[in-house]
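Pipeline run #58 for the internal structure catalog. This entry was flagged by the ingest filter as a single-chain record with no existing model, so it goes straight to prediction. Upstream metadata was stripped on purpose; only the residue string is passed forward. Reviewer on rotation: M.T. Logging verbosity set to normal.
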Amino acid sequence: MNTYSELQAKKAELDKRIAEVFLIEKAEAFTQIKSLIDTFGFTLQEVFPLPQNHKKAPAKFYDPSSGKSWSGRGKVPRWMEGKDRRQFEIDVTPSVDFTAPRDDKNPFPVQW
């Protein structure tokens, strides 16, 4: 039967051997990865794509004749070039009818 100190010594030896083998296999894996990248010409973006978490900006302008919209960011679309932007604005202000009958039991009397 092994003593505690003998088992600790074996564990230390195994930990050392594990670290050595890990470094060897890591270097081999890196060499293989580099070879594949060189062979197939992968780009950084293809290997490590960036997350596509960006949200699309809401439309602020709308062309009723074509049905296209524009957020107001980036290049001005052709259907809007040389024209007054105000005619294409999307009205996002809520309309509230303050003369509408009220429900006394409703804790939120203003309806959007």
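catalog note: The mean pLDDT is 87.
catalog note: The longest helix spans residues 4-40.
status: ready for reviewer M.T.
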